[in-house]
Design brief:
Structural class: mainly alpha
Number of strands: 0
Order of helices and strands: HH
Oligomer: single chain
Shape: rod-shaped
Distance between the termini: 34 Å
Strand content: under 5%
Number of helices: 2
Helix content: over 70%
Number of domains: 1
Amino acid sequence: MKNSKVLSALLLGAAAGAILGILFAPESGAETRKKIKKKSKEFGDRLKTSINDIGENISEKFSSVKREADDLLNQKS
């Protein structure tokens, strides 16, 4: 749980920094929009990866707990 909060905070901080950096850059509107689009895609890709990693972690933990429960049930029998 703590890891996911840290990861979320890092991603939000990176996104905020990227957006602020782009908005305060001395470039034309077209260039700024291109950069925003590119950074949004990069952020979305990182977010998908993070969500997949969290899902895999949850799945592994669930499988581990299930195996332990099965082992306990088999010992009782």
